[in-house]
Amino acid sequence: NIIKGHPEIKNYYFRILNTIETTKAINTGKTGEYIATKNIKNEKYIVVIYKELENDGFVITAFILQTVLKN
Question: What share of the chain is helix, strand, coil (3-state, %, to 5)?
Answer without folding.
Answer: 30, 40, 30
